[in-house]
Structure formats: structure tokens, C-alpha cells
Design goal:
By secondary structure, this protein is mainly alpha-helical. The chain has one domain. It is built from seven helices and no strands. Helix 1 packs across helix 7. The longest helix has 21 residues. The radius of gyration is 14 Å and the shape is globular.
Length: 130
């Protein structure tokens, strides 16, 4: 089954809404420094970073230091991963129903990266340049 762009947008909106009900997930927002970085680098670069970080840090069947591999700060994608429960395989399993113990598919990495990017874009819109 292939998902249409409309299906993906609906899934992203519903997932962000579901995550917003978690007191822990809802508290995250980008630091001013990370917002400035995201704006300076642009969407295409941050999107590439999101794909690379998700693939490299949580894509393996058994990622190194799973549960502790995603820093809390230092890059917009790191913060977004915690906000979107894409920070470790345990959170990915709990929130996105992708089982641990097997490598993420390219489609799964792409979908999770799209979620991360939607969260970052929403943060940037909600915190315009002063």
C-alpha cells in the first residue's frame, strides 16, 4: 500500500497532535540558537541532516547506546527527535509501532524524518524572527 501525500500530511498532523498530549514531549522547543541555525542552513539541509541522523543513530536493528544515543541539544534535529519520539528505538516502538530488533526501512526513515521536519517547521512558525 502506498501512502499519498495527503495521507502522509494527515498522519503527521495526527501524530503531532497525539504527541502534544504527552507532558514530556510537549515541553520541547528549539533554542534560539537552533532556530537561527535552521533558518541559516535552510529546509533542504536540515531535512538532509534529519534523514542522516535518523538513519545513522536509530536506523540499525540494535543501535549503539540505544536509549542514550540522541543528545538533548546541539542541533535542531536532536530536539525534534525527542519531541517526536524518534530519539531511540524504544520510543519509536512505543509511539510509532515500529518494532525494535530490525533495521528501519528507507520508507520508515523517510516518514520519521518528515515528522521531525514538520515539528521543526512548526516551531519556526510559532517563533518568528524577532
Amino acid at each position: 500500500m502506498t501512502n499519498t501525500a495527503e495521507d502522509e500530511q494527515r498522519w503527521i498532523a495526527e501524530t503531532l497532535e497525539r504527541l502534544s498530549h504527552s507532558q514530556f514531549r510537549a515541553k520541547f522547543q528549539l533554542a534560539d540558537k537552533d532556530r537561527a541555525y535552521a533558518r541559516a542552513k535552510g529546509k533542504a539541509t536540515i531535512d538532509r541532516h534529519a534523514h542522516e541522523m535518523l538513519h545513522d543513530r536509530v536506523g540499525a536493528a540494535e543501535p549503539k547506546n540505544d536509549g542514550r544515543q540522541t543528545p538533548w541539544r546541539g542541533h535542531p534535529v536532536f530536539t525534534a527527535q525527542h519531541a517526536t519520539a524518534t530519539c531511540c528505538r524504544g520510543c519509536i516502538e512505543k509511539w510509532h509501532h515500529i518494532p525494535k530488533g530490525r533495521e528501519l526501512t528507507d520508507d520508515e526513515v523517510n516518514r520519521l524524518a518528515d515528522l521531525v521536519m514538520a515539528w521543526i517547521e512548526r516551531d519556526l512558525v510559532n517563533h518568528p524572527v524577532r
